Amino acid sequence: MAGNDMIQVKHLTKQFGKLTVLNDISTSFHAGEVVSIIGPSGGGKSTFLRCLNLLEVPTSGQILFDGVDICDKKTDINLHRQKMGMVFQQFNLFENMNVMRNLTAAPVKIKKMPRQQAEEKAVSLLKRVGLADKADAYPSQLSGGQKQHIAIVRALMMEPEVMLFDEPTSALDPEMIGEVLDVMKALAESGMTMIVVTHEMRFAREVSSRTLFLDGGHIEEDKPSHALFEHPESPRLISFLEKVL
């Protein structure tokens, strides 16, 4: 399936007041592809990711998802958001709901999935991430790594076409990072389309098929991950990799 354009970004610009955070970005993401977005803090990575499902509304440009311009005011963005799973740095679980309720609330309410079917699906996905015994636990009873596992499962419950990850390991203790990256790696191997803003260079290098280097609101380099890491061309990327590798 890889090779079909699922998301096309055309001349995307995002400004906050007089500050231009993204400047005329054009790229595309294919079905079945795993793309990492790397770069220095403040370079526009998270803003770019949040524009892809209109959590940030672009100042100008187009974002075509399955051929539909989601920036068009006539587009039902909530319908398209159902096809895009989003995993944040800070988990964003509902503290007043146990794990099972966190996982089943959206599919039951938004997709009208029968509750029993939603609960069976939740149990199956919890088994996949090794947390089948946590269905009745509340977020306050979970470690950071477990919360991020649950956040990933919650996104998968909606059966998305693409998963967006915004620095999913940055709030975790070092020993938890590997566990979450293992879940993401298994997801990638299953064929899920993934776009990942990350500081984990090893994940970008070994799991992603492609890596974008974003700096100063521009895509400085965009190529297969092994080529980007082994033969960086832009002086900014060379300098960045010297600091982080």
Q: How would you summarize the topology of this molecule?
A:
Elements: E1 5-16, E2 19-30, E3 34-38, H1 45-51, E4 60-65, E5 68-69, H2 77-81, E6 84-87, H3 99-109, H4 115-128, H5 144-157, E7 162-166, H6 174-189, E8 193-197, H7 201-206, E9 210-215, E10 218-224, H8 225-230, H9 235-244
Helix pairs in contact: 3-4, 3-5, 4-5, 5-6
Q: Helix tally?
A: 9
User: How would you classify the helix and strand content by structural class?
Assistant: alpha/beta
Q: What is the assembly state of the chains in this entry?
A: single chain
Largest sheet: 6 strands, mixed
What string, H for helix and E for strand, traces the elements in order? EEEHEEHEHHHEHEHEEHH
The overall average pLDDT, rounded, is 94
Describe the global form. globular
Distance between the termini: 33 Å
Strand percentage: 25-35%
What are the segments in which pLDDT stays under 50 over at least 5 consecutive residues? Answer: none
